[in-house]
Amino acid sequence: MNRRQFAATAAAALAAPKARAQAAPLTAQQYIDRITAKMAAAKNSSPAGAQFKRDTIKAGDPATPITGIATTFMATLDVLQRAHKAGRNFVISHEPTFWHDPEPMPELAADPLTLTKRGFIEKNKMVVWRSHDQMHGLRPDPIFLGWAKALAWEKYRDAADPRCYTLPATTVNAVAQHHATKLKTKSARLIGDPNLKVTKVAQGGHGLEENMRLLAKSDLIIVFEARERDTAEYVRDLVASGAPKAMLLCAHLSGEEAGMDEFASWLRTIIKEVTVEYIPAGDHFQI
Hints:
By secondary structure, the protein is an alpha/beta fold. It folds into two domains: about 10-135 and about 255-280, Udp-n-acetylmuramoylalanyl-d-glutamate--2,6- Diaminopimelate Ligase, Chain: A, domain 1 (3-Layer(aba) Sandwich); about 150-250, NIF3 (NGG1p interacting factor 3)-like (Udp-n-acetylmuramoylalanyl-d-glutamate--2,6- Diaminopimelate Ligase, Chain: A, domain 1, 3-Layer(aba) Sandwich). It has ten helices and ten strands. The protein has helices spanning about 5-25, 30-45, 75-85, 110-125, 135, 140-150, 170-180, 210-215, 230-240, 250-270, and strands spanning about 55-60, 70, 90-95, 125-130, 165-170, 190, 195-205, 220-225, 245-250, 275-280. Helix 6 crosses helix 10 (about 250-270). It is elongated, with a radius of gyration of 23 Å.
């Protein structure tokens, strides 16, 4: 070996540990820090903290090296199993992993199903992190944007109120069929006349006050988490009064799943080290 070959070999040997260190997979906490920082910059606010109490790790060790990322509406046991099989050991869920909001619910700590689900996550070295409050603070909100894109309604969106849409003249029944087909759900219940002609449609909210506001400026509201004890009963009486209004009450996931697909697309712009995959939970209701 001549002097030049020796020098090249020595340099390569010295560089090898550095290269291996650079290739080490990032941890869940490192990805969380990157994501929350980017989200904070996008909405001009501080990273997830006290004001984002929901947005925490729900199970798993934050120091876990990550091999792949999955986004989902809800980290159901079925989603976790599919994510593990696909090699995605970091699951970002929009809704609770252990069913109750806010998490954790003390009464569930010793629940056998809780232990089974947590055990699966820990055994397979997975991490589940919830991203909810900060995500809804983004503009545009990826959850609502994903819903509009899935329905191909972006061009109908009201610039002044992003929860309202002006459609070409149609009927409540046609909207319901379109919604079921595009969002892969049949879980839609109707209050009102299915043949009612509509052009103004709004994406409803949780509470009666918000839904009253939207009903005043629309023919039809589509809601996913409205309480039956107030909004549904209000619309029932509104229809009985003779008002030409209607409401579709749909499965929770049909309003938000497409948004987590949209969020996965956004994540791919800032995460290049591993694969980011959207895993749908799917409509679990049988009718």
